[in-house]
User: Which sequence fits this backbone?
C-alpha cells in the first residue's frame, strides 16, 4: 500500500462525506445544478462585505518593500495588537499582543493548540454532537477523544462531563455557536463548566484546559450573545477565524487568543508559536493578516442568515419536523422521523435534497441542514422536505 494504514483508515472513516459529495455532483450533472438543493456543506454562500474587497485593493497598491516576506511565527505585531484591542472591547480581561497567535483558519489554530498541549494518550473531552474533524485533529497530536452526550436540547450534561474526567484529561473542547446544532452555551452553563474544571484541575494538580472553538461567534440570532469564557475560566483558549463571519473560508485566516490569566502563559504561548512553525504553517497568510487587522468589527449581514433560519424553521415546523431552533451558526439539526437517519437522508436525496446524517457528528437519529445557501435553494427544497416527511 502506497499510503499509511493510518491515513487509509481515516479516509475510509470519513468516506461517507466524500460519497455524499460525489452523489451530489452526479445529481447536479444529471438534473442541472439549479434542481439540486445542496445543504451538505458549511461553505457560506454570501459574498464578503464590500469593505473586505476595498481593503484588499488598498493593500495591493502598497508599494513598500518586504510586504510579502517571512515574519515572526506568531504573526505581525500590529495585527496581534489589533486583535487584542478588539478583544478588550468585550472581555473583562486585558489582552496584549503577546496572548494572540495568528493562524491558518480555526482549523490551523485548533491543531496548534492541540499540538502544544497534548502528550500521547492525553484525553480531550468533547460534547456531542460535534464537528467531525476534531477526531482527526486530536489524533494528529496523538491524543484521544472522549465524547460525552449532551441533553435533549444540546445543552451541556454535567454528569456526563464529570464521569468523563480522568487523570489523563488535558482539555475540554467546546464549540459555540455549535456546528451542527446551532446551540449557544449559556453563561450559566459555562460558569458551571468552569467550576467543574477548576475543581478537577485542583484535584489533579495541573490545569484542565478549556478550548473554545468560536468561528461562528458573530453569527447569533434573537439578540443572543456568546458568553466570554475568559471571564469565567483562567485556563482557557479561544480559537476562531474569519471564515464564516467575513465569508472568506478559502483565505485561511484566524487566530488563537490565550487567556491573560493562563498558568505558565509565556511557555504555553511560546509552545503555540513553535507549533505553528513546525506544523508547516510557519505563519498565517501575510496579506490576510493585514486585511483582517482593519476588519475586526466587520461581518456579513447576519440578519440575512437569521431570515434564512426563520424561513426554513417555520416551513419545516409546519411540515412536522422536530428540532431545537438554532441560536446561531447556520445549521439546523432536526431529529430524523426514523431511527436510522441514513434512510431519511437517502429519501431526501431522491428529491435532490442533500443533507448530512447526524452519525457523522456523533449524533445518530438526526441530520444536518447547512442553510448558508441562497433563498432559492431553501424555497426550491421545501416541497421535497414536505413530501418526504409525509412518507414516514
Ligand atoms: C466548528 C468548526 N470549527 C472549525 C472549522 C474550521 O474553520 P476554518 O475554515 O476557519 O478553519 C469549522 C468549519 O466549518 C467549523 O464548523
Assistant:
Amino acid at each position: 500500500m502506497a499510503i499509511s494504514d493510518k491515513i487509509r483508515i481515516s479516509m475510509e472513516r470519513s468516506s461517507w462525506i466524500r460519497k455524499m459529495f460525489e452523489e451530489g455532483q452526479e445529481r447536479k450533472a444529471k438534473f442541472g445544478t439549479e434542481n439540486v438543493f445542496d445543504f451538505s456543506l458549511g461553505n457560506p454562500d454570501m459574498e464578503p462585505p464590500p469593505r473586505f474587497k476595498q481593503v484588499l485593493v488598498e493593500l495591493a497598491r502598497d508599494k513598500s518593500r518586504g510586504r510579502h516576506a517571512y515574519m515572526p511565527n506568531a504573526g505581525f505585531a500590529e495585527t496581534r495588537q489589533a486583535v487584542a484591542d478588539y478583544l478588550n472591547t468585550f472581555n473583562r480581561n486585558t489582552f496584549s499582543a503577546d496572548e494572540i497567535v495568528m493562524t491558518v483558519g480555526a482549523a490551523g489554530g485548533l491543531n496548534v493548540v492541540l499540538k502544544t498541549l497534548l502528550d500521547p494518550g492525553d484525553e480531550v473531552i468533547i460534547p456531542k454532537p460535534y464537528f467531525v474533524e476534531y477526531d482527526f485533529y486530536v489524533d494528529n497530536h496523538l491524543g484521544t477523544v472522549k465524547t460525552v452526550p449532551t441533553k435533549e436540547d444540546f445543552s451541556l450534561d454535567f454528569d456526563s462531563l464529570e464521569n468523563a474526567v480522568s487523570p489523563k484529561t488535558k482539555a475540554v473542547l467546546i464549540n459555540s455557536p455549535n456546528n451542527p446544532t446551532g446551540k449557544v452555551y449559556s453563561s450559566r452553563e459555562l460558569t458551571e463548566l468552569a467550576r467543574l474544571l477548576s475543581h478537577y484541575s485542583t484535584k489533579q494538580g495541573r490545569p484542565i484546559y478549556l478550548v473554545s472553538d468560536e468561528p461562528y461567534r458573530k453569527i447569533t440570532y434573537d439578540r443572543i450573545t456568546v458568553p466570554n469564557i475568559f471571564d469565567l475560566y483562567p485556563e482557557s483558549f479561544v480559537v476562531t477565524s474569519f471564515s464564516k463571519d467575513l465569508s472568506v473560508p478559502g483565505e485561511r485566516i484566524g487566530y488563537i487568543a490565550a487567556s491573560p490569566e493562563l498558568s505558565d502563559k509565556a511557555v504555553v504561548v511560546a509552545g503555540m508559536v513553535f507549533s505553528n512553525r513546525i506544523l508547516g504553517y510557519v505563519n498565517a497568510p501575510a496579506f490576510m493578516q493585514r486585511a483582517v487587522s482593519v476588519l475586526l468589527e466587520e461581518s456579513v449581514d447576519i440578519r440575512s442568515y437569521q431570515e434564512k433560519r426563520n424561513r426554513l424553521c417555520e416551513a419545516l415546523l409546519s411540515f412536522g419536523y422536530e428540532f431545537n431552533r438554532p441560536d446561531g451558526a447556520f445549521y439546523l439539526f432536526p431529529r430524523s422521523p426514523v431511527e436510522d437517519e441514513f434512510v431519511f437522508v437517502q429519501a431526501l436525496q431522491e428529491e435532490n435534497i442533500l443533507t448530512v446524517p447526524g452519525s457523522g457528528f456523533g449524533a445518530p437519529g438526526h441530520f444536518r441542514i447547512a442553510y448558508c445557501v441562497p433563498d432559492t435553494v431553501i424555497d426550491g427544497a421545501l416541497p421535497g422536505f414536505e413530501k418526504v416527511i409525509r412518507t414516514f
